[in-house]
Amino acid sequence: MQTRIGRHGRPVFMKPVNKPKRKNPMETEKNTNQPFDLHLHSNCSDGSDTPAEVVRTVAARGVSMLALTDHDNIDGVTEAMSEADKIGVRLLPAIEMDAEWPHELHILGLDIDINDKKLTDALETALKRRSLRNQVITEQLLEAGYDIRPFLGGETGVVTRLNLAMALVKGGFATDTRDAFIRFLRKGCPGYYNAGRFAPEDVIKLIRGAGGVPVWAHPLNGHPDPHKLAPLLAEMGLMGLEGFHPSLSEGDSQVLTSIARQLNLIVTCGSDYHGANRKDVFPGQTWRDTPVLGECRAYFEARPKRKIR
Ligand SMILES: [Zn+2]
Ligand SMILES: [Zn+2]
């Protein structure tokens, strides 16, 4: 593989040209590595599309296996599942949960039993913490002279910090959501409040208890050293790394894949699609026809399909 140095001083990996493709002896007649996307949000959290719309949009892009991973809730799974069954694509019931240690980190719970009592109880606790946090942030911003209350309230599901950022933009206080996070919502700013989160080992235990596969989402966001954290999370029972995500360069994905190989973890791909709320992202965009993602697809395909009661 050739490399050159890109605009930001990072190596850019280029595919070799005009090289005949060598047949992989392990390749079977049926190539199971077709596009999939295991990180998608609906309006049950901070996406803009209904769960059924997410499934239709994803399927229209040729993605045949997907996971709806709304933040701290599974409200959209039943609707998504019935749409997926209608269209004929495989849906993994899933979730994205917040954890804290030593910084905020997100863990996807893929292919979970959405009726697991311990999980649903924990989600109620998380929802209460979130509502308290949103209320305190709104009050703190008001005290600092930024009234976002008129620009909130249209949300149909769990209100996340992205929703608060969008309210700051609508109110004319921030130029875009990135600006809102940097100037208002991050630690040390008037719109920061932490109502507490689960420890990662608790989240991992909850997901595994619900029969699911815990995967560290977008591992480099706020965590520059996955070499240190991934082994600790793997000790706790983590089963995968999201090695392909819009926030990761090709080089990052290679590093994460090699960490996953050492720790015997699955590597997943996800777009973190939020519909119109993140316009530069589209479903399936992080899928690659690479062996590591072929293994991931085969792993999930081999699991019995969950029935939603
Ligand atoms: Zn996340
Ligand atoms: Zn996400």
- What is the number of independent domains? 2
Q: Which range does the strand content fall in?
A: 15-25%
Could you give me the name of the CATH homologous superfamily of the largest domain? Metal-dependent hydrolases
H/E topology pattern:
EEEHEHEEHHHHEHEHEH
Globally, the shape reads globular
The CATH topology of the largest domain corresponds to: TIM Barrel
Describe the strand arrangement of the main beta sheet, using strand numbers: 3-4-5-6-7-8-9
Number of helices: 9
* Structural class based on helices, strands and sheet pairing: alpha/beta
The major beta sheet can be summarized as: 7 strands, mixed
Poorly predicted spans: 9-30
Please give the alpha-carbon distance between the first and last residues: 48 Å
Q: In the CATH hierarchy, what is the architecture of the largest domain at level 2?
A: Alpha-Beta Barrel
**Quick check: average pLDDT?**
89
Number of strands: 9
Please report the first level of CATH classification, the CATH class of the largest domain. Answer: Alpha Beta
Name every ligand kind in the structure.
zinc ion
Helix content: 25-40%
Written description of the protein model:
By secondary structure, the protein is of the alpha/beta class. The chain folds into 2 domains: 33-124 and 196-302, Metal-dependent hydrolases (TIM Barrel), CATH 3.20.20; 130-185, no CATH class. Helices cover 37% and strands 16% of the residues. The protein has 9 helices and 9 strands. β1 and β2 (11-14) form a beta hairpin. α1 (51-60) runs parallel beside α2 and α7 packs parallel to α8 (250-263). The chain starts with a strand and ends in a 7-residue tail after the last helix. Mean pLDDT is 89; it is low at 9-30. Bound molecules: zinc ion (2 copies). The site of one zinc ion (ZN) has 5 residues, from loops.
